[in-house]
Design a protein that fits this description.
The protein is α/β, with parallel strands linked by helices. 40% of the residues lie in helices and 16% in strands. The protein has a seven-stranded parallel β-sheet with strand order 3-2-1-4-5-6-9, with helices on both faces. A two-stranded parallel sheet has the order 7-8. Helix 1 crosses helix 5 and helix 6 crosses helix 7. The two termini are 28 Å apart. This is 20beta-hydroxysteroid dehydrogenase.
């Protein structure tokens, strides 16, 4: 049984942050697989616009405005999902504790590379994303004997609604599209991978592996933290990573 078995007709996906970007791209993938989708966002106008543009007159697509910090909103969402569809097979937390046990289910949680390699400059953001990674890892452990697979989606540089403030609104050459991220997620879920760390057109999978390995080495080799960005360590970091065969 593969985690991608959840991408099947009649299964239901609940996707938060579905108003644009990666969440919307995953929603499109779900619909192409015949899944019923419940699209959640805090921007009601964005939800209305996307249904008109991408899912016109589609009774298997339902939208719901939610403040993710509101317990009552989550309770209302849960009731809607169960009343409308009966079960949730795919939960994408892009911004579920209860899953049907009779069918394979999956949970996808979106993190960030900054929560793994911890680059200097935005400590609070890095810490929040490191916490997301830790929670996803523990959720995977807690559900290891269940029929629910857990996956940590870590996008690279992605051209989404949050990044379209670039001059001229043109996608930078180095960025992936949200659709590429969704396709990559589907591919890696098919291999039952937990850490789904996306490359982009600037940073390859190999480069990501080397950067993560070097970052972990700060602890093992007793280097100062964030050594890759320190002037006295930059050259050694670059030379060492260039020689890595991962």
């Amino acid at each position: 049984m593969s985690p991608t078995d959840v991408f099947s007709p009649g299964s239901t996906a609940l996707i938060t942050g579905a108003g644009s970007g990666i969440g919307l791209a995953i929603a499109k993938t779900c619909r192409t697989k015949g899944m019923r989708t419940l699209l959640v966002d805090n921007n009601e106008e964005a939800l209305e616009a996307l249904t008109k543009t991408h899912f016109p007159n589609d009774s298997d697509v339902v939208t719901f405005k939610v403040d993710v910090s509101s317990t009552s909103d989550w309770q209302a969402l849960k009731k809607l999902a169960l009343d409308k569809f009966g079960s949730i097979e795919l939960l994408v937390l892009n911004a579920g504790r209860d899953a049907a046990k009779s069918k394979p289910t999956s949970i996808v949680i979106t993190g960030s590379k900054q929560g793994i390699t911890n680059p200097p400059g935005n400590a609070a953001y890095n810490a929040s994303k490191a916490a997301v990674k830790t929670l996803a890892e523990h959720l995977s452990w807690d559900l290891k004997d269940a029929s629910t697979s857990v996956h940590l989606l870590v996008p690279g540089w992605t051209y989404t609604g949050l990044t379209r403030a670039t001059p001229g609104g043109v996608k930078p050459a180095g960025a992936w599209t949200a659709e590429q991220v969704a396709d990559y997620l589907y591919e890696k879920m098919g291999k039952n991978e937990f850490y789904i760390i996306c490359p982009d057109n600037d940073v390859t999978e190999e480069q990501d592996k080397k950067r993560i390995t070097w970052a972990a080495g700060d602890v093992v080799q007793r280097r100062p933290p964030l050594s890759r960005w320190r002037e006295e360590w930059k050259q050694e970091a670059e030379e060492t990573m260039a020689k890595m065969d991962l």
